[in-house]
Amino acid sequence: QVKLVESGGGLVQAGGSLTLSCLVSGRTFSELDMAWFRQAPGKERDLLARITYWGGGTTYYADSVKGRFIITRDNARSTVSLQMNSLEPEDTSVYYCSAREPTEVSWHYWGQGTQVTVSS
After folding, report:
1. pLDDT for residue 92
2. What 3-state DSSP class applies to 29?
3. Torsion-angle region of residue 15: left (phi > 0), alpha (psi -120 to 50) or beta?
4. How much of the chain exceeds pLDDT 70, in percent?
5. CA separation for the pair 36, 70 (Å, rounded)
6. Taking a C-beta distance cutoff of 8 angstroms, is the pair 9, 95 a contact?
7. Tens of pLDDT along 26-37?
C-alpha cells in the first residue's frame, strides 16, 4: 500500500517562505513521478509542480508558481519537497502531495493534505 505523508504546512506572512515535504512509503520511490497540488475551498484541485522519476527529475511548473516555487526529490530519503518563496495571500490553500506510476496519466496516490495560510 502506497502511503504519502505531507508535513511543513502552517501560517506565514506574505512575502515569506515555507517548505513542504512528503514522505512516501510502500513503493519504490525512485520509480514514481511526483507532484504537488493545491485546493482552495470551493475550487478545483490544481497541479502546481511535478517532477519525473527519470533523467534526474525533469520538472514542470504551473504559471501561477513559476519562479517562486521549487520542487525537488531525494530518492535516498523517499521524499519530495516544495520550496515556496514570495508567498502571497492567494497561495492560501490545502496542499497535497501526489504520485503516479510513470505509465499512467492520472495521479492516483495522494497524501492527506497540509494547510498553508498566508496572511497579508
Report:
1. 97
2. helix
3. left
4. 98
5. 10
6. yes
7. 999 999 999 999
